[in-house]
Amino acid sequence: MALIGRQLSSGAFIKLDNISSQFDSNKTTFNLTHGGVAFFPENPFTLIVSLGGVVKEPNLEYLIDENEIIFATPPSAGQKIFIVVLSTVTSIAAQPFKSLIIGARSGAHSIDLKGKNFAVQDRAGAFYNIAFNVS
User: Fold this and answer.
1) What is the model's pTM?
2) Distance CA 84, CA 48 (A)
3) What is the mean pLDDT of the segment spanning 40-54?
4) 101 - beta bridge partners?
């Protein structure tokens, strides 16, 4: 069935790797990965978690800690799961930035980028160019 209504024009929707092979009816904590690489959700509300055909409620039926999902009750062995990420930080560099202001408890700090590429390094050592929503 086709999508009814306005078509999506953008978005970073991904399906995380299947973790059901780790379910043993005792364990509650599982690593989240995408393509075998650790995935760090921004918060539990950016995920749709379907366990055994039932969508789970964030912060009630599961929590997120770094790249781990922690279920309130252990999933049964053989239970099916899928996890879809509804939004992620994108790496769109549509316009060069002239400066970046970062808030801190001791005050705001300004970083002058002067059109240079700005990148962050992940825990595995890979670098990613980033852009911030400036609206």
Assistant:
1) 0.60
2) 5
3) 91
4) 110
